[in-house]
């Protein structure tokens, strides 16, 4: 079960050349700076952009090859644009019904009600788009895309046009979708925090080319990632809540890929056994050769140095560590790395200053 | 003291040049376009006066003259309009006269369509009959008079296509959109001969004469060129030109 | 009643001509405006220029060429004759054809502006919601272009009512076929019947004002919700 996409497109001053094999489940982020071609790729997949000689199949069903080009309206997909692009002459309900009526085997009333509830747009249905806030419009647009019962959901930076507060308003809905949807989602973004929260897979693009592609955790832990994340460099790990400390309002989460290795985080109210995601930025990790005591840092874990690499600035280095199966990336000065005599295979203590619980 | 002879000659010359510089703005009926251009050229050569010509329909000229148009003389397509202007005090008294009598012709751009007696009208084998609007155009009125006399008016009225002045019926016929039309002989005659197609010159006894009157307008009072043009129109040279275009005098 | 039967016939004919012309123009102008609004073809310039020609040309030029081309010796005339339709000058159908050409820019340009203002995005959104291009045109473009259609319809109608030079050239002043109001007024003036001319002219003036007033009131430019 996979999505295979191969496109070449030449425009003046820009060319797209990709050959991808993506999992047909979960959320795949198409990540890159603006102008890297991620939106163009998404439009090619939607059939909005006609790449001659392209190829696209969804789990074996061919949408485009040398002989055929399924027009957009015949592709069973949902598309969320950067601006909501609701039809201004229709109410929110009219917008939802527009696609639902036209889709063969569209969702039934109960499923529509479920989507409406999931996105919290029940009270908005009779309003016109110009009576909705930006965040509300985008939620209606997402519901509209889901109402055609797509087999692939394409989202083109659905949060980029919103301010921070609206973004925070929508992200929980998107996370809920992530948990509930059983269709693959391609999510274009240039914001590392959105990717960290939502994606399972990541495709990193630069200048119309794919420069990295793979599971989110592994890919973000690569030190040779050609795209420079700067302050956003770090790892995202899936974890499970195993313990809650009511007195100090802390919860212990254990990394999914590691045997009983975990960290203490602020208690987000999740029940024990709940799956969560944590994000640990490289700048928040420091290393020590011995286990320190008398420090404010709560999370000190042993790990094995796997790889060292130069960072962008010549003063800094990145170190990838293996925490009993879970990866971690630390940023330190090259002098520190030299003074500590770090080398692959060495056991060190990682001191984690901050862990963000992201859902 | 006696002036030198050469100075006298020069003075006389200067006077004659200033007399030559006189101009007259003339409103001319559309049917008289071709002869008037020729007459004006001769007029300028013979008298030194310049006649500046504007062509159009008599009804439009009437409206313009009533509203202050700077015409000094008016060569109408009919006799009524100048008479009306005279009654309304827009002319120089006693200047009105008939400068030409128009000749009506039934004309087709194709050879062999119109016979020498106009029987084609009785046979009725044609699509459209172009005429000038009889409500105000003298050639249209004459055409209706001819058809009435022949007892054909009612049967042919449905085939009328009307022009707003005499230029339009000629246009309709010459482009073939109407197979026949009543036009002014002056429009199809060059050098005393009908220049193309086939035609029946309607005998003048079949309709009231198409008197074309000229008049000096109030604005032309005291204009020597206007007076000169009026008398020139009565002269032999002008008459000869008019005749070559098919006008009776 | 200050208006004669002939005047009333001219008014009725004019309204009929303007209605038929406007209807045809909206049908014909829609695909032309749509194509002009969206094409990137080299032909956009030349086609746009041809459509705009009547804005610039004197009506007499249009009328003269229509008379020549639609006449029995002209290419259009040859074609209509070969179809057994006869020739178009001096017929109501001929006036309709001339008016359609004459008023074309007044319909195409507002529609083209409306289509261009809608842009690509609503069509793309419709396509991702399973609407075929034709479906999207009727369900999205037409409702969104409604102000453009109102403007186009009113301007096309009013401009046809005000047509004179072209009708003069190819009409032949036939009662109930080609004698429209403007020609009737011209005849009144030519016949020095100024009272009748005033009644019709005053009516035209009032009509034109009311039409434009309606246009500016119902469809103000720059309206933004």
Summarize the structure.
The complex is a heterotrimer of chains A (359), B (249) and C (225). Chain A contains eight helices and 20 strands.
Number of domains of chain A: 2
Q: Which range does the strand content of chain A fall in?
A: 35-45%
**Helix-strand category of chain A:** alpha+beta
What is the percent of helical residues of chain C? over 70%
As residue ranges, the low-confidence spans of chain A are: none
Sheet with the most strands, sense and barrel status of chain C: none
What is the C-alpha radius of gyration of chain C, as a whole number of Å? 20 Å
Mean pLDDT of chain C: 90
Choose one word for the global shape of chain C. globular
Secondary-structure element order of chain C, as H and E? HHHHHHHHHHH
CATH class division of chain C:
Mainly Alpha
Find the CATH superfamily of the largest domain in chain A. Answer: P-loop containing nucleotide triphosphate hydrolases
CATH-assigned homologous superfamily of chain C? MetI-like
Query: How far do the termini of chain A sit from each other?
Result: 27 Å
Written as H for each helix and E for each strand, in order along the chain, the element string of chain A is EEEHEEEHHHEHEHEEHEEEEEEEEHEE
The domain count of chain C comes to 1
Helix content of chain A: 10-25%
Using the coordinates shown, work out and report the CATH topology of the largest domain in chain A.
Answer: Rossmann fold
- Low-confidence runs of chain C: none
Features:
heterotrimer, A: 359 residues, alpha+beta, Rossmann fold, OB fold (Dihydrolipoamide Acetyltransferase, E2P), 2 domains, six-stranded mixed β-sheet, five-stranded antiparallel β-sheet, 8 helices, B: 249 residues, alpha/beta, D-Maltodextrin-Binding Protein, domain 2, five-stranded mixed β-sheet, 11 helices, 40% helix, elongated
What does this structure look like?
The complex is a heterotrimer of chains A (359), B (249) and C (225). With 359 residues, chain A is an alpha+beta fold. Chain A is globular. Chain A contains 8 helices and 20 strands. In chain A, strand 12 (250-255) and strand 13 (262-266) form a beta hairpin. Chain B is of the alpha/beta class and 249 residues long. The radius of gyration of chain B is 21 Å and the shape is elongated. With 225 residues, chain C is mainly α. Chain C contains 11 helices and no strands. In chain C, helix 1 packs across helix 8 (146-161) and helix 2 crosses helix 5. In chain C, 44% of the residues are buried. Chains in contact: A-C, B-C. At the B-C interface, helix 3, strand 7 and helix 8 of B face helix 3, helix 9 and helix 10 of C.
């Amino acid at each position: 079960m996979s999505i295979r996409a191969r496109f070449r497109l030449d425009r003046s001053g820009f060319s797209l050349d990709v050959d991808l094999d993506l999992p047909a489940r979960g959320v795949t982020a198409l990540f890159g700076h603006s102008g890297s071609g991620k939106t163009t790729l998404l439009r090619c997949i939607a059939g909005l952009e006609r790449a001659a000689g392209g190829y696209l199949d969804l789990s074996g069903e061919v949408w485009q090859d040398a002989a055929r080009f399924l027009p957009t309206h015949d592709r069973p997909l949902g598309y969320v644009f950067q601006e909501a692009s609701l039809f201004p002459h229709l109410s929110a309900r009219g917008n939802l019904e527009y696609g639902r009526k036209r889709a063969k085997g569209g969702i039934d009333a109960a499923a529509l009600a479920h989507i409406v509830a999931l996105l919290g747009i029940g009270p908005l249905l009779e309003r016109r788009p110009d009576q909705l806030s930006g965040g509300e419009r985008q939620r209606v647009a997402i519901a509209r895309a889901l109402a055609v019962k797509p087999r692939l959901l394409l989202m083109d930076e659905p949060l980029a046009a919103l301010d921070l507060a609206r973004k925070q308003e929508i992200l929980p809905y998107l996370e809920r979708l992530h948990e509930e949807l059983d269709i693959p989602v391609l999510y274009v973004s240039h914001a590392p925090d959105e990717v960290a929260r939502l994606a399972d897979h990541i495709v990193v693009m630069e200048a119309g080319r794919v420069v990295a592609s793979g599971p989110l955790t592994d890919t973000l832990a690569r030190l040779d990632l050609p795209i420079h994340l700067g302050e956003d460099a770090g790892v995202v790990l899936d974890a499970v809540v195993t313990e809650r400390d009511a007195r100090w309002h802390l919860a212990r989460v254990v990394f999914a890929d590691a045997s009983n290795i975990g960290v203490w985080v602020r208690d987000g109210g999740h029940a024990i056994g709940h799956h969560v995601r944590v994000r640990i930025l490289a700048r928040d990790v420091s290393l020590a050769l011995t286990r320190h005591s008398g420090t404010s840092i709560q999370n000190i874990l042993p790990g094995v140095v796997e790889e060292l690499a130069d960072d962008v600035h010549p003063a800094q280095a990145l170190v990838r560590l293996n925490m009993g199966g879970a990866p971690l990336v630390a940023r330190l000065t090259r002098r520190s790395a030299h003074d500590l005599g770090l080398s692959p295979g060495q056991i060190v203590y990682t001191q984690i200053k901050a862990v963000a619980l992201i859902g | 003291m006696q002036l030198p002879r050469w100075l006298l000659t020069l003075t006389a010359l200067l006077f004659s040049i200033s007399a030559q510089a006189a101009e007259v703005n003339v409103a001319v009926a559309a049917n008289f376009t071709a002869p008037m251009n020729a007459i004006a050229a001769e007029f300028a050569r013979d008298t030194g006066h310049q006649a500046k010509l504007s062509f159009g329909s008599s009804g439009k000229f009437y409206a313009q003259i009533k509203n202050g148009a700077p015409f000094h003389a008016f060569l109408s397509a009919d006799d009524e309009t100048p008479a009306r202007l005279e009654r309304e005090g827009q002319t120089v008294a006693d200047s009105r006269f008939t400068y030409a009598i128009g000749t009506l012709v039934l004309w087709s751009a194709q050879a062999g369509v119109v016979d020498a007696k106009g029987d084609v009208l009785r046979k009725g084998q044609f699509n459209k009959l172009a005429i000038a609007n009889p409500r105000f155009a003298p050639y249209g009125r004459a055409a209706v008079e001819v058809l009435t006399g022949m007892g054909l008016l009612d049967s042919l009225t449905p085939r009328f296509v009307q022009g707003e002045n005499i230029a339009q019926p000629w246009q309709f016929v010459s482009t073939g959109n109407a197979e026949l039309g009543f036009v002014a002989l002056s429009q199809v005659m060059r050098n005393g001969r009908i220049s193309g197609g086939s035609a029946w010159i309607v005998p003048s006894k079949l309709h009231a004469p198409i008197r074309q009157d000229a008049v000096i307008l109030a604005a032309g009072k005291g204009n020597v060129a206007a007076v000169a043009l009026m008398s020139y129109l009565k002269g032999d040279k002008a008459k000869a030109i008019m005749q070559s275009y098919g006008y009776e005098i | 009643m200050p208006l004669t039967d002939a005047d009333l016939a001219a008014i009725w004919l004019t309204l009929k001509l303007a209605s038929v012309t406007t209807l045809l123009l909206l049908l014909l102008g829609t695909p032309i405006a749509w194509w002009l609004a969206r094409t990137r073809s080299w032909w956009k310039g030349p086609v746009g220029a041809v459509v705009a020609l009547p804005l610039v040309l004197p009506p007499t030029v249009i009328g003269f060429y229509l008379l020549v081309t639609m006449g029995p010796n002209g290419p259009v005339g040859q074609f209509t004759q070969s179809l057994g339709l006869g020739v178009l000058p001096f017929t109501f159908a001929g006036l309709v054809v001339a008016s359609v050409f004459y008023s074309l820019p007044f319909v195409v340009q507002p529609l083209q502006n409306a289509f261009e203002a809608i842009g690509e995005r609503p069509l793309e959104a419709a396509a991702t919601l399973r609407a075929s291009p034709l479906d999207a045109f009727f369900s999205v473009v037409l409702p969104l272009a409604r102000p453009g259609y109102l403007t186009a319809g009113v301007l096309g109608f009013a401009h046809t009512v005000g047509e004179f030079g072209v009708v003069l050239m190819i009409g032949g002043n036939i009662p109930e076929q080609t004698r429209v109001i403007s020609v009737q007024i011209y005849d009144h003036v030519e016949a020095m019947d100024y009272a009748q001319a005033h009644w019709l002219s005053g009516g035209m003036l009032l009509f034109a004002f009311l039409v434009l007033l309606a246009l500016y009131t119902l469809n103000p430019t720059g309206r933004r919700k």
